[in-house]
Write a structure and sequence with these properties.
The protein is an alpha/beta fold and 392 residues long. Helix content is 42%, strand content 15%. Strand 6, helix 7 and strand 7 form a beta-alpha-beta unit. Bound molecules: alpha-D-glucopyranose.
């Protein structure tokens, strides 16, 4: 794969957070499936991801941030703090450039827009190409029109290539004359012969159903809408697990959800963050994904399908690229509470439909094997050309 005379790949991934959020977990699975010794991950803060990477034998570094990155929280920041934050990112980028050299990086892979900004400086200092691994839609819904345009433009100026987690995410970027790859985040199949359905019971009758919602508790992930939709179903499920923690100042949201669940007398259990949600997925009959904004990809949808749940997910966004509605799951329009209630009613009542959707879902989930994504990403990173003005 390596062209003759070229240095063998050493891809260094850069992350601005070490919290176990979706993008960081996707990176963990991806680098675990890439060739050993050809990757390393640099974080700009300490956090649980360092241990999780180390457990898998992946080399990590922390290059600490000496500015308050919360000043960069887009919706709260004024121009002054954005500017201060921006300068801090650039300073950190300079130091990261030295780390890239120490690690012998041949390509820098930035896992967020903040990492892309720092990476622009770091990659230039180290004389290596910069690839932006985009896990978020760079769109007005998330950033506001203004900032979305600025981030797209800065990205286009800074990067040599893009890896997007879905076609939808890719479409939210400017990619003119840049190499680009869509690599879906994959799930891990322990061995080729692993039967994903092993250990799973049959779908339960209506009154016995168990529902699971997995994901960080955050307003745009729609758990509040889910609770309100659930309150209107004809037959409540027996149990509902809300699996997920709060990482980024979202504790108030969790409290609101708990108050809501109690007020509506719903059979909801909040598990908090769990390292491995799989046991809940195996226990559940139905997995609900309920993001109220377009989901960039939606790993939990694939995880639920692989575990043999009948899934409901929202569109537009990544789930549209995963689920074929009526065949291996159901799709509802994001933010439409009554439609979500209707989909829940349909699935809870119809055990046979759930069984059919879940069986097809397990087959579909096979298309999202992380080994295949890792192969594509490795190939892409080995061949991405640097900008001509770069040395090294
Ligand atoms: C981000 C996105 C999510 C995606 C994950 C992995 O967390 O919000 O949709 O599944 O990254 O790419």
């Amino acid at each position: 794969m390596t062209p003759p005379g070229a240095k063998p790949l050493r891809a260094v991934f850069l992350a601005h957070t070490a919290a176990p959020s979706g993008a960081e977990l996707a990176t963990l699975r991806l680098v675990s499936a890439m060739p050993a010794g050809r990757t390393a991950v640099v974080y700009t803060e300490d956090g649980p991801m360092l241990r999780r990477m180390a457990e898998r034998g992946i080399e990590t570094r922390v290059v600490r941030n000496d500015f308050d990155s919360r000043a960069m929280t887009i919706d709260k920041a004024g121009v002054g703090s954005l500017l201060r934050g921006g300068l801090g990112l650039l300073r950190l980028g300079w130091r990261l450039g030295a780390t890239m050299r120490e690690l012998g990086a041949t390509v820098l892979v930035a896992g967020s827009s903040k990492a892309m900004l720092m990476g622009a400086v770091a990659a230039r200092r180290a004389g290596i190409p910069l690839v932006w691994h985009v896990h978020d839609r760079i769109s007005a819904e998330y950033f506001g029109q203004w900032l979305a345009t600025a981030v797209r433009l800065l990205g286009w100026l800074a990067v040599d290539g893009y890896i997007a987690n879905s076609r939808g995410t890719l479409a939210s970027l400017y990619t003119w004359r840049r190499r680009a790859l869509v690599a879906y985040p994959g799930v891990e199949y322990r061995s080729v012969s692993e039967e994903p359905e092993s250990g799973r019971r049959e779908q339960r009758p209506a009154a016995e159903t168990v529902v699971v919602v997995v994901g960080r508790l955050a307003p745009w992930k729609g758990q509040d809408l889910f609770l309100r939709a659930l309150a209107d179903v004809r037959n409540l499920p027996r149990e509902v697990f809300l699996v997920g923690g709060t990482f980024f100042d979202e504790q108030d949201y969790r409290r609101e959800l708990e108050v809501r669940a109690t007020a509506l007398d719903l059979p909801v259990i909040f598990t908090g963050h769990v390292e491995d949600p799989e046991p809940y997925l195996h226990e559940a009959d139905i997995l609900v994904h309920c993001s109220v904004l377009p989901e960039p990809f939606g790993q939990v949808v694939v995880e639920g399908m692989r575990a043999g749940c009948a899934v409901i997910a929202t569109r537009p966004g990544g789930p549209e690229e995963i689920v074929e509605p009526g065949v291996n799951g159901l799709l509802v329009d994001a933010g439409e509470r009554a439609r979500l209630t209707h989909a829940l009613d349909t699935l809870i009542a119809d055990q046979e439909l759930r069984t059919k959707l879940a069986a097809a879902a397990r087959v579909r989930a096979r298309d999202f094997d992380v080994a295949e994504s890792a192969r594509q990403v490795t190939e892409f990173l080995t061949t991405v050309p640097g900008k001509r003005w770069r040395h090294g």
